[in-house]
């Protein structure tokens, strides 16, 4: 029996079948979101065992990692509508910069460190609405912009105030902070100032050559010929593929341009394709996994993919988040709910950078696969 398009049966049957197929898909996604949220609740309890009220930082990890832990904590609080950790944010803002080993105003010799703290306080501002957090981010940005240099590579921020080097991460962070502040400015003059910096940084970054032919971002530039800097071909770390996603979302919000989300999508999908194993679990191409730096990277990608999906939803982002969250919990966890570096397993060791990075992935899965993102 054949049906014409005019026949009502032709229209009803496919719709009915689609609805039948969509019910288990929606249920599975909802279940995944609930599981990720429950797992994030356990993960954040473990993370906070490393928090030190006396200095507002996290034991077992470094200065910039603590900024990322604060960011993960803010995103968890937003997802769960929790006010439990508001005293933690206030304590860290006022204690970390002055306690032993801290840096007044969150200013030190590394522009990337400063960028991480600026983004942490912007995230806490979004959560609380308290101006002191946004003011802290603005003050940090004022110092970051002093690192802009045109004598080498025609622009861009230096990595350090003491040693020369122009890398992707500090420039991605500078772009993100500038665009984020533009979107949160209270006056047109402030907004224009931050937006001008964001657009200037993006034009330079886009033309720098750090985005390679695979739509992945290499670690930095070769400065052997300062007049003609080139991609240094160094590792495509996961966090370099992540920070740019949040940056372009913020820049597109401040000054809409269809090229920006298209570029973000191409980088996100390329990272998923090239930096995941055969099971779809994120990993670094470089074998480095010791110290406090590299274990932080993958979580940065996960949370920025969450930001991209919030603005431009994509089923592949959501599936990626589910896969990684499930793998972390099932294959990269010890009996005390410590989460390690190898998201595909096995569990290696516990520290605050590993825990906060994995928490980023759990929160991303909880948000990306919730009802408001379907």
Automatic annotation (TrEMBL):
<feature type="signal peptide">
    <location>
        <begin position="1"/>
        <end position="27"/>
    </location>
</feature>
<keyword id="KW-0732">Signal</keyword>
<dbReference type="InterPro" id="IPR053169">
    <property type="entry name" value="MUG_Protein"/>
</dbReference>
<dbReference type="InterPro" id="IPR008928">
    <property type="entry name" value="6-hairpin_glycosidase_sf"/>
</dbReference>
<dbReference type="InterPro" id="IPR005198">
    <property type="entry name" value="Glyco_hydro_76"/>
</dbReference>
<dbReference type="Pfam" id="PF03663">
    <property type="entry name" value="Glyco_hydro_76"/>
</dbReference>
<keyword id="KW-0378">Hydrolase</keyword>
<dbReference type="GO" id="GO:0016787">
    <property type="term" value="F:hydrolase activity"/>
</dbReference>
<dbReference type="GO" id="GO:0005975">
    <property type="term" value="P:carbohydrate metabolic process"/>
</dbReference>
<protein>
    <submittedName>
        <fullName>Glycoside hydrolase family 76 protein</fullName>
    </submittedName>
</protein>
């Amino acid at each position: 029996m054949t049906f014409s398009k005019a026949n009502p049966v032709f229209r009803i049957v496919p719709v009915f079948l689609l609805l039948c197929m969509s019910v288990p898909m929606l249920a599975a996604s909802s279940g995944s979101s609930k599981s990720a949220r429950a797992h994030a609740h356990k993960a954040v309890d473990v993370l906070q065992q490393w928090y030190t009220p006396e200095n507002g930082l996290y034991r077992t990890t470094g200065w910039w990692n603590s900024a990322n832990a604060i960011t993960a904590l803010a995103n968890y609080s937003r997802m769960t509508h929790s006010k439990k950790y508001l005293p933690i944010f206030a304590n860290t803002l006022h204690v970390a910069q002055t306690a032993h080993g801290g840096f007044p105003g969150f200013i030190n010799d590394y522009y990337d460190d400063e960028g991480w703290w600026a983004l942490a306080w912007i995230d806490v501002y979004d959560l609380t609405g308290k101006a002191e957090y946004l003011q802290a981010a603005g003050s940090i940005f004022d110092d970051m912009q002093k690192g802009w240099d045109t004598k080498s590579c025609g622009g861009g921020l230096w990595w350090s105030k003491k040693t020369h080097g122009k890398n992707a991460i500090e420039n991605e962070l500078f772009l993100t902070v500038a665009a984020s502040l533009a979107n949160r400015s209270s006056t047109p003059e402030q907004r224009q100032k931050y937006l001008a910096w964001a657009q200037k940084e993006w034009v330079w970054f886009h033309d720098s050559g750090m985005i390679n032919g695979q739509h992945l971002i290499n670690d930095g530039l070769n400065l052997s010929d300062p007049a003609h800097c080139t991609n240094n071909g160094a590792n495509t770390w996961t966090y370099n593929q992540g920070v740019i996603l949040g940056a372009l979302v913020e820049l597109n919000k401040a000054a809409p341009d269809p090229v920006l989300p298209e570029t973000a999508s191409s980088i996100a999908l390329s990272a998923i394709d090239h930096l995941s194993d055969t099971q779809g679990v994120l990993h670094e191409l470089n074998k480095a996994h010791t110290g406090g730096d590299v274990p932080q990277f993958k979580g940065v990608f996960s949370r920025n993919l969450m930001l991209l999906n919030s603005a431009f939803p994509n089923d592949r982002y959501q599936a990626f988040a589910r896969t990684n969250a499930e793998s972390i919990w099932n294959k990269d966890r010890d009996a005390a709910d410590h989460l390690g570096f190898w998201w595909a397993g096995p569990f290696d060791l516990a520290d605050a950078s590993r825990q906060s990075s994995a928490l980023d992935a759990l929160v991303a899965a909880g948000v990306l696969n919730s009802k408001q993102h379907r």
